[in-house]
Structures are given as structure tokens and as C-alpha cells.
Automatic annotation (TrEMBL):
One GO CC annotation: cytoplasm
InterPro entries: Biotin_lipoyl, GCV_H, GCV_H/Fam206, Single_hybrid_motif
Entry keyword set: Lipoyl, Membrane, Transmembrane, Transmembrane helix
Organism classification: Bacteria, Candidatus Schekmaniibacteriota
Biological process annotations from GO: glycine decarboxylation via glycine cleavage system; protein lipoylation
Species for this entry: Candidatus Schekmanbacteria bacterium GWA2_38_11
Stored CDD domains: GCS_H
Domain Lipoyl-binding, residue spans: 82-164
Organism domain of life: Bacteria
Protein name per its UniProtKB record: Lipoyl-binding domain-containing protein
Positions of transmembrane segments: 15-34
Amino acid sequence: MGQFTYIDIYATKGIEYLIVIGFLFTLIAFWRFLNVSKLKPISNAVFEGIRKLSELIEGFLIPDGVYFHPGHTWVKVEDNDLVTIGMDDFAQKMVGDVSAIELPPVGSFVRQGDKGWMLNVDSKYIDMLSPVDGEVVSINQGIKNSPDSVNKDSYGEGWLMKVRVPDLKINLKNLLSGNLAKKWITDASENLRLRINHDAGLVYQDGGLPVKGIAKNLNPDKWDEIAKEFFLTKE
């Protein structure tokens, strides 16, 4: 009778399993190495979102790189002497849904602190001040068909005009930006909150402000006078 040799198949299978598991760990490490550059943009996107949230001051958006006029209009420098202008987030939340906007014609001249354009809201007309001196070289044609763009995206699709400003540096000195703009909007928000508590007797539990049509919440009949007061156009 020949000699019988015993082979432990379970032991050999165990070795095979260890080899497979080791290969999988190596594969995973290699995959992570190859994709680390793809993961970085995702992290950057998250931090970008956090940065944008930090620009929401007292419920009002204050983007970086934008200059503000105290009458709640804004300026973004596009070129050496070319700027884009519009109404800020505070203004659109103050008046609510805008029915139409009357803009000056291309080629006309606007002056800083004087009437720049006029809002039509619920059949009432409200002037807003131009934040710069210069010649109107372009207007947002889309505003005619979609005036509510100023409510949806006041610093983007809701832009109003492009103006060529000869003395841009001098004009910018009269405007607010960065931390100064944030302090200004904080003060404006506080003044508005005091006005709400005094005129309407309303105290919001969270200390916040109405999101849309703030002036109408204060006085449904004379809300336009309140808006003009904050826009510095009240006579």
C-alpha cells in the first residue's frame, strides 16, 4: 500500500485569501493616490460656499470686490474706467417685486449722487441715485422683459448699466467697500429694525427682518416714502 500524503486545503486557501486581501488594499491605496487631485476641487468648492455665506451680513448680501453708494446702489469695476452698476440686495428686499425699471438712454451722462434710474413698484415710482459720474455706454436689455432679475440676482443678471467713468479713482473714494461696507449695512439694518419696532410695533423672535417688501410691512400705504428715506431720495 503506497504512502498517503495529507494536504491541508484550508491552509492553502487561507494563504490565497490573504494574497487577495493584500492586493485589494494595494489597489485602494493606488486609486486614492491617482484621485487625490480630483478630491481637492471638491474641498475647495465647500470652502468657497462657506466664504460666500460669510458675506451675508444681517440677512443682506455684500459681495467682495463691489463698491456701495449709501443710497443702496453698487459699482463693480470691469476695466480701467468701465464699471457695471445696479441696486443692492438691501434695496430689492426693501421694495419687493419690481414691476419695471426706467433706465437712462445710452450716451446720456449720470452724476454721482443724482438720479440714476427709477423703479416702478405697484404703480409707485421711486428714484435711485447713481453711484458714479460718467457716460452710459450700455444698459441691460433683459431688464425690460424681466425686471424681477433685480430681485432674483441683484449683483448678477440684475445689473442695470455699464458706465464709462473718467475720474474713477475719485468716484471710488466716495463709495464703501470691504469691512466698511459691512459695517454700513449692519448700521442700516439696525436702523431698519428700530423703525420696525417703533412704527409697526413688531418684534421678530429671531431678531430678523422680513425677506421681501420690507417697507410694505411697515406701512402698506406710504411704504414708498420709507424706501425713499433709505435710498436718500426723499424730498
